Amino acid sequence: MDVSNPVSDFTEADVSRNILATRLDALKRWAKSGSLWPMPFGTACCAIEFMAVASERYDVGRFGSEVLRYSPRQADVLMVLGTITDKMGPVLKTIYDQMAEPKWVICMGACATSGGFYRSYHVMQGIDEIIPVDIYIPGCPPTPEAVLRSIIMLEEKIRQQGVASAKREFAERAQRLHTHTEDASVTSLDPPSLELIEFSTRTDDVNLPWVAELTNRLGLAAIETATDFRGDFTIRVAPGALIAACRLLREAPFSMDMLMDIAGVDYWTRDPRFDVVYHFYSSTQRHRIRLKVGVSESAPLIDSIAGEWPAANWYEREVYDLYGMQFRGHPDLRRILTHDGFGDLHPMRKDYPPGLRQPIRYPTEAVPAAERSPRGEMVPLDIHPTIMNIGPSHPSMHGTFRLIAQVDGERVVDADVELGYLHRNFEKMAETHTYWQTIPYCDRLNYVSPMCNSVGFALAVEKLLGVEVPDRAQVLRVILNELSRVMDHAVCIGTNVLDLGLMTDYFYLWELREQIYDLLESCSGARLHVSYVRIGGFSDDVPPDFVEQVRRILHAAPRILKDTETLVTRSAIARSRMQGVGAISQKDALEFGFTGPNLRASGVAYDVRKDHPYSGYDQWEFEIPIGRQGDVFDRYLVRMEEMRQSLRIVGQAIENLPEGPIFWDDPRITLAPKHRVYTNIEDLMRQFKLIMEGIKPPVGEVYGFSEAANGELGYYIVSDGGGRPYRIKVRSPSFAHYQLYPRMVRGMDVSDVIATIGSLNIVAGELDR
Amino acid sequence: MNQYIALLIYLIVSVLVVLSMSFASEMLGPNVPGGLKKLTYESGIVPEAPVGYFSVRFYRVAMLFMIFDVAIMALYPWATTLSSLKAHGFYNGLAFFAIMAVAFVYVWRKGGFQWH
Amino acid sequence: MILEIVVLVVKILLLVAILMGGFAYTMLLERRLLGFFQLRLGPNRVGPGGMLQPIADALKMMLKEDMMPAGADSFVYRLAPVIAGFAALSVDAVIPFGAPIHLLGLTISLDIANPSIGLLLAFALSSLGVYGIVLGGWASQNKYSLLGGIRATAQIISYELAMGLSVMGVLLMSHTANLEGIVLAQKAQGWFWLPQIVPFLIFMVTAIAETNRTPFDLPEAESELVAGYHTEYSGMRFALYYVAEYINMITQSGLIVTLFFGGWLGPSFLPPIIWYFIKVIIAIFVFVWIRATLPRFRYDKLMSFGWKILLPIAFLYFVGTAAFVSGVL
After folding, report:
1. With contacts defined as CB-CB under 8 Å, which chain A residues touch C70?
2. Which of A424, A722, C328, A410 lies closest to B85, judged by CA?
3. Cβ contact, residue pair A34, C46, below 8 Å
């Protein structure tokens, strides 16, 4: 017998001679195939579809696979659900290694299979680079039916497997492993056209008294330019005057109390090469201002405003990470989104190729190093600290957040978080695609309510273009947006109470979500990532029974909400877990740029839909619920009430749905209907130009914002007049919420840490982008 | 047959059953070492430090538990025989309860059942 | 004598078989019931109507690789699940499943042993289970496991006093700690759940805590501690913890039925043993129902709930019952 291949001459015929062995083996394979307990390694959108698979419509429990084991020791099949980034790679590898034999891997979705359409610097181009895969499920995300099919396929595979020892399986699997590849389509970006250098420096219309006041008080030397484009006020200040300007903005009459975002922009051929762009908002005056500072390439130094505005801490870290700007006086300047393998490289710079990944070292030691120093800014304890990782692959951390907690018994003494495990480079991808092609990427930001993201993006580009969509499209956007909000809040509440140990309500709320999925599917053909919105309207009109379907949802929803009320609001245990836990004061919420339900739960009635109405929100009657304590329970109540208010808006809108076009037939913005493309040359050319070159908005920059399910979703778009956005910075609500989280959890018990993260509803897709 | 011998036999049998179950996987299952398999699971992260100091903050409650538990044990024989002891037995017991109740209220007021 | 030994051996084998089968099918029942509560179906593919699902699960568990993390205390790590499983199995020895039957000239009581301190013994044995959890959590060298183990301790010191006090009323009324005696006393006086309604509810609550099930599943707390004290366990050692949990559920149901619902008593159109199992299954249904309905306690809340609410109430009710039994009232 050949020793190197012990099974080669061990034929099936030999085996069948031994009937007992085959019977026993068949029994073993039957048992293994009938009891596949999955370990969900969910990171992104696919995890949401997997939640649907586990829920009542599809019920993976029928196959005996509803026993989700979050410990790799107890699971049989590792379900990789969603994009795996290079930063996540070592985590996935570790978990695969830790699984007990026999083990299988199901790889769900295009991202995990091949990187999907994220051919970018931080996304692994298929998990088979590091672990062997048994079943691939195509789709983005795959339908639940496809996931069920994959489980059946795996069962068949196990039943048909020959008599192979675990050792042989293991050797086979190791052979199938690809070697680590680094050639993921290294394409370079075109250098910008030269007219880029002076962007939107028109000084007209800057006549607001407070802008003049700012100029007066800072001194003329401090202000380089002041511009107004589509109602966005931009002031470029001298680098030396930045801190003074930021301090001044807090005072009346500016009364800026929220730092919304900080973005870096790379103007490549200009000197100074970089801009750092600050967005401020005043929640009392309801006005915004954009501050810009130039930073040269040779000395990328800029003053940190983290001392003045604590929220700037993470935003500056992000700018440092992606652009390499050094912030003087920053308390803790280290990478935030990308992994440490990037060294001196800063991937959002225009000369960094979008697809160039950096190699990463995989852990190979079996025994942990004895003791290393605590991370980051944690205070040292005088006792031996116990540092406990909660996440990334933890049932309550949505698979992508990592809380590094220094615990003393159950109590978290100090904490730091690590993010970027789902940094799949939305912003870099947007720069390499046309405005239209960016819409599917937008859907995948907050993958719990995709519609809100793409509507927000379309609104921002429309602002840049200076167009408004037809009435019918506006009302449809409102309806679909509000239903998306309902389904986002439903998942938030469902998972939050699931984290508290109440599992049934999650399934009830999921039924509501499934009904909305049905509607979206009949509109766009997709359940989750609908890609239904277009710049200038919608891709197509809604189906004829749309109104009827929406009415059905409106009829069913109140009953489901009532069930939740019974199970959660009236449950004394649930209340005791939620009341007084994770309270956020109004001051903190504003200071850290909270928006959406989380801000409103803290008592600030800021809602973009009311304060800066868009898409005709001002014509519908609805109210903004606000909380008092800002604790987990208030956030829950606010979300519950918002769902009711959203349904109220939908109820009004569906009865007043106007007839008419769903997009403007403008050759610069929208495609012509197919039958016209096939029959006349003008429309054929229009199709060709729009597909190949894309929409070409005017030179300029806007900050378009809307009320997404989690709060204010802003897109800061810089256009160089070309068909691709020069720069898109997403102001994601979750990023702001998550920044406060490590401070909040200090002094909490582990149970409350879990309750709090669920109630903040942080979605990794928009957090890490 | 003596009840306790039967009980003992049953206990021995159940230990054997459980022991044989607990070694089943070790005997029947595969054993493929390698990689990070023996690393303790911490959400997929290589643990930075082993379990260090771990404070059990409820040790005081645990002590109280021991005391009260022993006190309650003493009540079992009393409870089974009370119907024959009649009122006399009840009043004697009541004195015992009173002492227990005083201790209980004292500990409560002192914050002995506070978690931290 | 030989006949008695044979009877004993048969009884022991039957009991182990019933408990193991009971474990497997209680688990299936729970999965199907949870499906029912959650608008799903639950396992129905493996075997007719999913009836073979537990068999497949058990076989698969046996064929799973056994794991022990680096740095674990290998002896304690192996010992812990054995303690948990043993504690669960052993309690049922003293619970009578039915009225004594007469066969071959012998009176065979439907329990393994029937000592006069049956109830105390049951409590003592079932309390051992917590050692399995604490030691398993400690020996794993895993932080989640350790937290889970410590929570188990915190939990047992929170509810056990109330549990001990809540059955005192039953002892007072039946004048014995012998479980068969308690059932027979209920034949004379009526089932105890009505006069002992408050202790019954307290016992129900603490019985759920004893089995570490929602809302008292703190040691396992899947959403907080991944898999709690058994995070590092795989294969049959992990399965033993499940065995312990489900057999404990059967046992606690048996105790509830025996102490408060007249054990095997029931109208004569069904044999006593059937009555016993019907009652036990109803109790198990309630356990599952509660699991599907309630969220989890936080354990400082659990501690104040156990000490400041359950214990005083159980105590007062006990004193009241004592006054009544002794004729003072």
Report:
1. 366-367
2. C328
3. yes
CATH of the structural domain B2-109, one choice from 1.20.58, 1.10.287, 1.25.40, 4.10.950: 1.20.58
**Could you please report the per-residue DSSP string of C4-23?**
HHHHHHHHHHHHHHHHHHHH
Cβ–Cβ below 8 Å for A92 and B44:
yes
Query: Could you tell me if A764 and A444 are in contact, meaning their C-beta atoms sit under 8 angstroms apart?
Result: no
* C8 contacts B22? CB cut-off 8 A: no
> Minimal CA–CA distance to C56: which of C78, C33, C27, C19?
C27
Report the pLDDT averaged over residues C15-44. Answer: 88
Q: Give the A window 374-403 contacts with C, CB below 8 Å.
A: 386, 388, 394-396
Contacts of A249 (CB under 8 A, 6+ apart): A214, A256, A280, A289, A291
Report yes or no: A383 at the B interface, CB cutoff 8 Å.
Answer: yes
Fold type of domain A195-342: Beta Polymerase; domain 2 (3.30.460)
> What range defines the domain where residue C38 resides?
2-326
What does the pLDDT read at residue A165?
53
Question: What average pLDDT does the segment A658-682 reach?
Answer: 83
- Asked if B41 lies within 8 A of C71 by C-beta distance, the reply is no
Interchain contact, A101 vs B52, CB within 8 Å: no
Q: Which of the following CATH numbers is that of domain A21-175: 3.20.20.70, 2.60.120.10, 3.40.50.12280, 3.40.309.10? A: 3.40.50.12280
Partner residue facing C38 (CB), from A56, A571, A576: A56
3-state helix, strand, coil in chain A (%, to 5): 40, 15, 45
Burial grade of A654 (CB within 10 A; 0-12, 13-18, 19 or more)? buried
Please say if the pLDDT value at position B3 is more than 70: yes
Shortest Cα distance, chain B CAs vs residue C272, angstroms? 22
Q: Is A390–B43 a contact, with Cβ atoms under 8 angstroms apart?
A: yes
The nearest alpha carbon in chain B to A100 belongs to B37
Q: Is the pLDDT of residue B67 over 80?
A: yes
CB–CB of B3 and C144 under 8 A?
Answer: no
Q: What is the pLDDT of residues A374-425, one digit of tens each?
A: 334 444 444 556 778 887 888 888 778 888 888 877 888 888 888 888 888 8
pLDDT in tens, C97-108: 877 777 777 777
For the stretch A144-199, pLDDT in tens is: 999 999 999 888 888 876 555 555 665 666 655 544 444 444 445 554 443 333 33
Residue A389 sits at the chain B interface (C-beta within 8 Å): yes
**Strand residues in A96-164 grouped as ranges (E):** 104-108, 135-137
Please state which CATH class domain A432-452+469-664+732-768 belongs to: mainly alpha
Residue of B nearest to C244 (CA): B18
pLDDT tier, A200 (very low <50, low <70, confident <90, very high otherwise)? very low
pLDDT exceeds cutoff 50 at A202? no
Q: How many angstroms away from the CA of A86 is the closest CA of chain B?
A: 14
